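Aim 2, interim progress: modelling of the pteridine-2,4(1H,3H)-dione-bound target.
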Amino acid sequence: METKSKTQKKQRPTLPNIDSFTHVRGQSLFVDDMTLQEGTLHAAIIGSTIAHGYITQIDYAEAEKLAGVIKIFTANDIRGENQIGGIIPDEPLFAEKDIHFWGQPIGMIIAESDFIARKARSLVKIQYEELPVITTAKEAKDKGQFVAGSRTFQLGDCEQAFKNCEYIFEGETFSNGQEHLYLETQGAYAVPMENGNIKITSSTQGPTAVQRTAARVLGIPMHKIEVEVIRLGGGFGGKEDQATPWAVMAALATQVLNQPVKLVLNRHDDLHMTGKRHPYESSFKIGLNKELKIMAYQAEFLQNAGAAADLSPAIAERTLFHSTNAYFVPNVQTSVYQCKTNLPPNTAFRGFGGPQGMYVIESAIALAAREIGVPAHRIQEINLLQEGDEFSYGQIAKQVEAQNSWQKAKQSYQLQKLEEEVAAFNKQNDQLKKGLALMPIAFGISFTNTRMNHARALVHIYEDGSVGISTAAVEMGQGVNTKMLQIASEQFGLPLHKVKLEPTNTTRVANTSPSAASATADLNGKALQRACKVLKARLCLAASQHLNIDASDAEFHNEQVLIKDKPLSLDWYQLVTEALNQRICLSENSHYATPEIHFDKGEEKGHPFAYHVYGTAIITCTLDCIRGRYNIDAVQIVHDYGQSMNEGIDLGQVEGGLAQGIGWMTMEEIAYGADGRLHSNALSTYKVPDLFSTPDILDTIALDSLGHEMAIKKSKAVGEPPLMYGIGVYFAIQNAISAFNPKYTPQFNSPMTPEKALMSLYEK
Ligand code: LUZ
Ligand code: MOS
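Predicted structure of the complex, ligand included:
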C-alpha cells in the first residue's frame, strides 16, 4: 500500500527542517549519545511491584554487595524536599512508605555501569502490605477519591432549554489513554561543576520545570542548577512535566557523590513508570430543536488522573474549553471530576484533554443523527460556529473559519459524490462496507493558565557578523528551530548558515514556560522578532552616525543594508564592525507576553485563547465484515494554517497529528490489570499506527485564511489541532458497522479495535 500525501496549492516556500541533515546521518545528539565524562556513573530505578499499599520491609543487602554498586538512594538521601508535584504538592520523588501506583519509584541504584545497576536492582527485596486498587475513574468518583476539586462551565440555562427541545438524547462514552511512545525514552545526564553547582542535560519540554524541581529536591537555589536541552526524540506532552523526576534523580546522585550520573530509562521502565493520556469516562445529554440546532448540551467528564495531580487540573480545564468543539451551543453545562486512581499519574498528551472533550460531543451528535435518521454531518454543519458566537467560557469567536473550512472541504473533495459512492458500494457489497464521517475542529491557542504565555529570546550578533540565537523553545521534531532560524535570517537579511540556534538552556533564557500548548513558535518567535528589531534599530543608529544620514528606516537584505532599495556603502559585516567601534551593544534579550488574554477561574469566564485553529476532515474507510478489519481509504483535510511560514513542516505536523489521532481512536489499547499493573507494556501488546494504518489517500488543502496577528508571521499554531481529525475515523468505522448490521447500537467506547468492530458487526 502506498500513501499518497500532498498539500495542494503550494504558495509559500518550504525550508526543510534544519535537523534533517544530522537526523538522516545518525549524527543528531540526544541524551543517550552524549560523550560521557570520566567517572560517569549509571542509574537504575527501583519501581514498586504493587499498585497500592505500603512498604513493610526493604532488604538492600544483596544489591549493595554486588561489585560496582556505588550507592542506593532512597528518600532519606534527599537534602531538600521529597516533592515533585508541579501544580499540587502531592507527589514524592521516591516513595517513603505509601505506594500509589505500580512502577512508582522507591529508590535508585547508582553503579559503575548500567548493567550492574540493573542487575543490582533485581537483588533488592521489598515486602508490601497491599490495599485495594482502583483503576477506573468511576470507581474513584464513587469512593470520593479526587486529586483536586471539580470544575463546571456554564452558558445560558440548560434546564430551561431542554424543556423546549424536540429531541433529547443521553449516552455514555469512554476514551482510553494513550502511550506517548516518544522514540527517545526519558533521560538525563547530570554533571558536577564547581562549588556544588550542577549542570543537567535533560530530554525535557520544560527545562525550567527541571531546574525548579531539582532546586527544591536538592535544597539549593535555582541559580546553582543549569539545565540544557539539545533536542528531544519526541515529546508529545510526555516530557512537559514527566521528564522532571529522572533529571532530578540524576542531579541528586551527582549532588551527593560529586560525580557525573547518567539516567536513561529503558523502554520497559518508561512504559511502566510514566503517565499517559488520561482515560475519560463521560456522560452526555444533548437537546436539539426541529431544525436540528443543538439547543442544550450537558456533559460530565470523569478524568482518570492517576495517583497524583501532575498536570491533571490544567488538562481537565482544557476538556471543558473544548467540550463543544467547533459548534455553537447556546446552553451548556459541563463538569469535570479529576479522579484519583492507582495508575501512574496521567499527564499532558497532544491536545491536553481537548480531544477527550471533543470525542464526547461528537458521540452525542452521532447518537442524535442515528436516532433522528439523518447523516451526522447535517447536524454538524447546522451547528458550526459563526462569527461572534460565544463559547461556554465567555470568549467571543472571532475570525471563525469553521464554516469556511467545512464548505471548502465539502466542495473540494466532492462530499455528495463521495456519499453516493459509499451508498452504491454498500448496496453492491455484502462482506465489505464503507463508512464516511466528517470531523471539524476548533482548538484554542494559548496556555489556559494565562501567566504561562510568555517567552524570551537572547540574540548575539558576533563581531564577524554571524548570529547566535537562544530562546525557550525546545526542538522535539516539530521544527521550531527551523522556524526560529527563518525569522532571524529574514529579519537580518542573512543566509541561513550565518545564523545558529543554540540548545535551549536555562542560564541563557530563564523562567521559561515549557514547549507545549502548540504555542512555542508563537511565543518564542514573537520574542525573537522583537530582539532582532531592537538590534536592527541599534545598527541603523550606528549607520546614521557613521554616514551622517538618517538610516533609521534602513532595511536588511542579502547581507546588505538598504535605504529605499539602495545599498549603503556599508554592508552587514562592515556595519557590525562599525557598531562595535561605536561601542554599541549587539546582544539583546527580548520578552513577549501574549496580549489581551485573561481568565477568571471564579466566574469560569474570560478570554483565555489568543485565537483558534480550525479545519475539517472528510474520512472514508472500508470495513471487512467477516474479520472486523478496516482500512482507512482517505482522509481529506482542509486545514487552517493561517499564512503558513513553512508549509512542509506544517504539513508534517498535520500528517503526524492525524496518525497519532488515528492510533488513539482505533488501535492503541492501554490495558491495566485489576491489580494496576500495565499489561500493554511492550510493542508486541501495544499496537501503534504504522504505514498500513495511515490512510491510502491523505490530502491536505491549506485554507486560504488571513491567519492571526497573535500568530507568528500570521502562521497559526499547528502542533496539536490535527490530532483531533483522527476522532472522525472512529465514527467512519461506526458508520460502516451500521451499514452491515442494522441492529447495531453504537457504543462510544474507543479505541475501535478490529475486535470491537467484529463484535459489533454481529451484535443482535
Ligand atoms: N500545557 C499546559 C499544555 O501547561 N497548559 C496548556 O494549556 C496546555 N495546552 C496544551 C498542551 N499543553
Ligand atoms: Mo503538550 S500536550 O506538552 O503541548
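The longest helix spans residues 520-547. The chain has a mean pLDDT of 97.
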